Amino acid sequence: MYRTVIAALSAFALGIAANAAAAQQLEVHRSGKTYHRAVCSKPTAPLVMRCHSEIVTDPQGNALLTPNAPGVTPSGFSPAQLQTAYTVDPAHGKATSIIAIVDAYGYARAEADLAVYRAKFGLPACTTDNGCFAKYNQDGEAGNYPKDNVGWSQETALDLDMASAMCPKCKIILVQAKTPSLTNLAAAVNTAANLGAVVISNSYGGDETGTTSFEPAYNHAGIAVTVSTGDNGYGVSFPATSPHVVAVGGTSLVLGVGGRVETAWDGAGSGCSKVYAKPSYQTDKGCKKRMVADVSAVADPNTGVAVYAPTSKTSSSWAVFGGTSASAPIIAGIYANQGTKKKSAKTLYANSDQLYDVTLGANGTCGTANAYFCKAGTGYDGPTGLGSPNGTGPF
Questions:
Q1: Is the distance from CB of 173 to CB of 195 less than 8 angstroms?
Q2: φ and ψ at 271, to 5 degrees?
Q3: DSSP letters of 19-62?
Q4: 130, 234, 298, 349: least buried by Cβ within 10 Å?
Q5: Which pLDDT does position 4 carry in this prediction?
Q6: What is the pTM of this model?
C-alpha cells in the first residue's frame, strides 16, 4: 500500500545537499514494507516540473546505500533480471540507435557513475572516448552545463542506468536543461530530437494547466517520446497527457521460478486529461480526451531497481530506486533496442496482443462508472495501459 508516513523531513534526514525549504517538501512514503521518498522537491511555481524518481530509505527517510566494492551485489533488479522479465535480448540494438535522456540541471559525474553501473553488471563500456556517450546542454553545446543538483542527478542516474539495461549496445546522449521549468525542458527535448535520437526519455511532469504552447516540443514524427505518468497515484500530469508521447505507467514486478507476476503499482499516475484531445488510436469510451497510460513497466520501489547514483556533490553509492522515472527509460531502451524503426504509441495499440496484460491492482479511487481509470483489468486500463513488455515486437 502506497501511503505517506512522514509529512516532513529535516535537511539532515534527506541525506542530500538541500535547503530547508526543499526539505519541508519531501515526504516519506511506504509501498508494501518498503519506505521511499521523492528525490526532487515539489515545484513552487507554475510550469515547473518535478522528477518522478523515488529512492528507497529507512522509516526516517535516510537513503539505504551500499558502497561500491568488489564482491558486493547491489540490491534491486539488475539488467539481466529486467531483460528476462521483459523478454529483451541485449544482443539486439545497434550502435546507431541513440537514446536521449532529458533531465534538469547538471550532473558532473554522469559518465563516471554510468561506467560503474555498466562495469558491475558486465555491460559494454559507454564513454565519450568510444563514441557511445555524449552530454549536452539544452542548446546543444557539449559544455556550459547547468549547475549540479543532487536530486535531479539521482534522477538522471536512474534514467541512464535503465536505458543501458534495456539496450547495452545503444548510444546515449544526455541533454541537460538549465532548470526544471517547462520552458527549458521543452527546449532540451527539441535539442535531443535535432541530435538524432530515435527515442527521447522524459521522467518528469507537472500540472496540465498552461502547457499547450509547450506541447509541440514533444511531437517529433518518427521519434518515440516516452514520458512517466507520475508517482502520486490516480491523477494525470503533463507531458504524459500529450497525445504525441508514449505515456508510461508503473507496475510491481515479482520474478519467480514460474516467471514474472506484475500488478499495477498504486503510486503510478493515470486518468483522463482535461486539456488534450483523444488520439485516434485510443478507443476507450469513458474518457473523451487523452487517456493515460499507454504502456507500463516496473516502478514500485518495493520491487525496485539497482542504480549507482550520487549521494552528495562529491560521492556516489548503490541504492534502490523506483517511480515511473524507472519505467519511462526502460520503455525508451526497449524502443531503441529495436533499432531505428519509426514507431510510437499508435503501434502499441495495433499490437496490444503482444504485450503482457496486467490485470490486478489499483492506484486510487475513481468510482464505478469508469473504474478502469484507476483499476487494472483485462485489456486496457489507466494505471498500466495496454500492459507491459513481453518482447520487443510492438516497439
A1: yes
A2: 135, -170
A3: -HHHHHT--EEEETTEEEEESSPPPSSTTB-EE--EEEE-TTS-
A4: 130
A5: 74
A6: 0.95
